[in-house]
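Please, structure for the following, as tokens.
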Amino acid sequence: MGLERHSFHEKRVDDRIAVFHRTRAIGPEGRPLSLVIVDLSVSGMMARCDIAFVPGVQIDVTLPVIGVHPARVRWSLGGRIGCVFCPALALDDYYALLMSLTQAA
């Protein structure tokens, strides 16, 4: 029986690319955060974070090439957060970001 038969299966709009990038973000009330981005797409990311968030809060993530970009937390579980970029990244910025992350590795 495949996962698609279960209600928890999530169909993503965009494919995610596995990355490993340590970065900073600003959380609610201006709180500084340390993140490790572990996957990335044009529309969002998953990151490791020591702080649990309520879904819906906005954080401002520092991304290479792009700079600070807003993201809304969709879920937070077990030291990980899933975020959607608001707005989604422009394709040329996304490709430049991926290039910078793969060259840094």
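The chain has one helix and six strands. The CA atoms of residues 58 and 72 lie 4 Å apart.
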